[in-house]
Predict the structure.
Amino acid sequence: MSVRLTAISPEPLDVATHMGAVSDSGTGAVASFIGTVRDHSPDANGTVTRLEYSAHPDAPRVLAELADRVAGRHPDVALAVSHRTGDLAVGDLAIVACAGSAHRAAAFDACRDLVEVVKAELPMWKKQFLADGSHTWVGSA
């Protein structure tokens, strides 16, 4: 199928938009991943109160290329993925990925592949703010 949606955005992410982008009359399964901001991290000593995501200027192009690469490995799957930038509170959506296919196994496999590639290769950094007023940087989203 194809990549239907990729975006790097400071605006809140909409799960329904991603699900709709990968769905059509032949879709029998939509697998999704919703990454949310949590109040703890293995990279931080203490409670995380918020995150600040920063993207390299090439991040939109890189995200589209990563999604295209994953789509090449999963030709019968439609993909959508977006990552948020800016200040995010605990509970906010940081990343949404959806994969639509006629069959669930293909959708699950493609969605996981997409998320793992984006997490490993997207030029995105996060600054974790802690309850004690300190912060830590994590090199990749």
